[in-house]
Write a structure and sequence with these properties.
Layout: E1 12-19, E2 24-30, H1 35-46, E3 53-57, E4 60-61, E5 78-83
Length: 88
Amino acid sequence: MENNEQPQEKKHINIKILDNEGTTIECKVKRHTTFSKILDEYAKATNKSPKELKVALRGKFLSLEQTPNCVAMEDGDSLEIMSTQIGG
């Protein structure tokens, strides 16, 4: 009997979180964890307010309700965390 099952996709991926101050944090996240939760954990670790931060991937801002799976993130990808700017 043959095993026709496809290999299961990894449940976790390792990502890097980069901010505009040059800080890099490496973490392991589930593919279905929302960016809102990732942002909250980053804010806690860096003592910043999540309300003042945005998440981007490859220069494009992401919805906080999206997940790494939604945007096809792979092991080793980097998220950018940026402070929101008011004015011009």
